[in-house]
Amino acid sequence: MSEADPRIVALTREAVAGCCPQLVEALDPRLFQALGDENRLMLLCRLVAASEGQTVTELAGCCGVHISGVSRHLAQLRDAGVVVAQKTGREVRYELQRDLLVSILRTIADGLEKTKNDHQ
User: What are the helix (H) ranges across the chain?
Assistant: First the structure.
């Protein structure tokens, strides 16, 4: 994944900090960019359902994308911190960073609730 434009990241962080500082770290544009694709969401669902790490080949059947495309999608998810890749010999297995993703989404939900309560 190409790096997010630092100007956009800075503007986003500045805007968020002005209205709801508790969300600054959680509202990373790279995360939303990574989650904003139907194929990547399908890969995430497959990883959620998996009891162990999955290879690119194992994941390729879920979304009708060629293996090279699956690999690029997984790289974008990895760069956003959503999945982790572990190499064992010649095999790379991808796992969902479940606790991290839950924490980020919970922080966003809590921040939205707090701002709602602050404005009532």
Answer: 6-19, 29-35, 38-49, 56-60, 67-79, 98-118
DSSP helix/strand/coil, 90: coil
Phi and psi dihedrals of 6, rounded to 5?
Answer: -60, -30
CATH number of 6-118: 1.10.10.10
Question: Can you give the residue ranges of every domain in the chain?
Answer: 6-118
Over residues 103-112, the pLDDT tens digits come to 989 988 888 8
pTM given for the model? 0.75
Cβ-based neighbours of 45, under 8 Å, separated by 6 or more: 62
CA distances from 108 to 28, 71, 105, 111 (A): 11, 28, 5, 5
